Each structure stands twice: as structure tokens, then as C-alpha cells.
Amino acid sequence: MYKIIIENLSIQYSDGTESLRNISLNIRDKAVTVLFGPAGGGKSTLLRCLNRLNDLTEVSNSSGRVLIDGENILDPKTDVIALRRKVGMVFARPVVLPLSIRGNLTYGLELAGETRRSVLDEAVERSLKLAAIWDEVHDRLDDPAIALSGGQQQRICLARVLALQPEIILLDEPTSGLDPISTGKVEAALIELKKEYTVILVPHSVQQAGRTADHAAFFLQGELVEYDEGKKLFTAPKEKRTEDYITGRFG
Ligand SMILES: Nc1ncnc2c1ncn2[C@@H]1O[C@H](COP(=O)(O)OP(=O)(O)O)[C@@H](O)[C@H]1O
Ligand SMILES: [Mg+2]
């Protein structure tokens, strides 16, 4: 089933950069869809479009439609706060709040008015487990999150997004600053997440794309070159440009 339908999306920044050109892409529920390709391809621009974070940048012109559950979220009438709750995002550099581990997880819910201790405790445990970090922190939830390692902080950031019960999770190179063991833990978490959520990942390498992708889209300079099941795309790409990139001929 398609959770997100992107139709003829073009985005231009105010300096004239055309960062996405007429992209059409359908994204499935309960799967990991990977957006990969060299820097400057428009991957982050596309992710930011899905939760309207581009509203905060210098986008001068956009056209096309992005339907999430059938509603065009680019419509000016969209409730952006509700959208961002439904479409959570994890960035390349973990930014934990200057609070305890627990505080990082309950912050968003408390802001939304939740005060019941049992609900908050349940959210903390559920999201830490989903983010594959519960075992490492359950006995020190009141310690400052900032004292954790970078890999642990990144999983706290993922858990913080999960605590708000989004439906779609966007991850923009979430393991680019992490060691291989932490990277493995984040990738393991993705396998759990896709049982329940729509997951869209910009991987930090072609290898990671190959390991994680149920579906993969190759972006080059604002163009969607090829989109297919991960297995097919990484073993028998249809386009020469895709093949050249995944075999390391450029990028
Ligand atoms: N805020 C911005 N203002 C102007 N140009 C931008 C901005 N963000 C990205 N771009 C340009 O848009 C293009 C796509 O960038 P981006 O979406 O970050 O690609 P990727 O994530 O694939 O590296 C690049 O040419 C980049 O320089
Ligand atoms: Mg990017």
C-alpha cells in the first residue's frame, strides 16, 4: 500500500538552484525506502518537503503534489504542526536536549499536554526499545542524555521521534558520524521500525543503501534516475548511471 504519493514535484531555491525536477515516486507503508546518490542530488530537499521543513528555507518555487494518506500536504491549508507530528525526522548529527534521558523522551509529549505518569513511562520504554537502546540505558534514565556516546545519542534522537507516535520516519544520513557498531544498531532498529512505520532513509553509503533498502530511489542532480525494489536495483540496475554509481565509478 502506498503511504506517500509524490506527483511531478519540482523545487527551486531562491538562488535559482533547481534541486528537484519533476519527481514522481510512490512510497510504501511498512517498508524501508532508501533515497541515495551523490551529494547535491536533492535527497535532503525531498525529505524536508515531506514534513514541510522547506518552509523554513529559501525555497522560491515549488510545483507538483505530495499526497500523504491522500491529502496534499503542500496545500497552504495543511496543519503543519500535526503534519510534523505524523512525519518525524532524524538528522545526521544527533542533537539531544539538555535534559535527562527520560526528559528527552517525554518533552514532546509533555509539550502536547500529556501529564499522566503511566502514559509517559510507557512511551519512554516503548520508544527506547524500538530504537534499540533500552538495554543500555534503562537503569539510568535520570542521567543527562549528553553524557551518552554519539551512537547512543543518535538512538535517543530516534526514540524521541518515536515517542510522539509518528506514522512516517525520515532519517537523513543518521549514521554518518557513527562507528560501525552503533551504525549496526541503528540499522537493526530500522528492521523493527518497518514492521509498523513508513521509513525513508538517506543512507551514508551505497553499502548501507544495499543493506537496508526494500525499495531504492537513485537521485542525481535533482533527477530521479531509477526506482525499484532494493534487490533488483542493487543487483541488476536498468540505467547505466545507476550502475556506474553503485559500482563506484563516480560519486
Ligand atoms: N537552503 C538552500 N538554499 C539554496 N540551495 C540549496 C539549499 N539547500 C540545498 N540547496 C541546493 O539544492 C541542491 C540539492 O541539495 P540537497 O537536497 O541538500 O541534496 P543532497 O541531500 O542529495 O545532498 C544542491 O544543489 C544544493 O546546493
Ligand atoms: Mg543531504
Layout of helices and strands, plus pairs?
Layout: E1 2-13, E2 18-28, E3 31-36, H1 43-50, E4 59-68, E5 71-72, H2 80-86, E6 87-90, H3 101-111, H4 117-130, H5 134-137, H6 150-163, E7 168-172, H7 180-193, E8 198-202, H8 206-212, E9 215-220, E10 223-229, H9 230-235, H10 240-246
Parallel strand pairs: 3-8, 3-9, 6-7, 7-8
Antiparallel strand pairs: 1-2, 1-4, 4-5, 9-10
The chain binds adenosine-5'-diphosphate (ADP) and magnesium ion.
Strand content: 25-35%
CATH fold-level topology of the domain at 31-44 and 80-217 and 225-246: Rossmann fold
Rg calculated over all Cα atoms: 18 Å
Looking at the overall shape, the CATH architecture of the domain at 31-44 and 80-217 and 225-246 is 3-Layer(aba) Sandwich
Provide the CATH superfamily of the domain at 31-44 and 80-217 and 225-246. P-loop containing nucleotide triphosphate hydrolases
Portion in helices: 25-40%
Strand count: 10
Sheet bearing the most strands, described? 6 strands, mixed
Report the order of strands and helices.
EEEHEEHEHHHHEHEHEEHH
The 3D shape can be described as globular
Strand order in the sheet with the most strands? 6-7-8-3-9-10
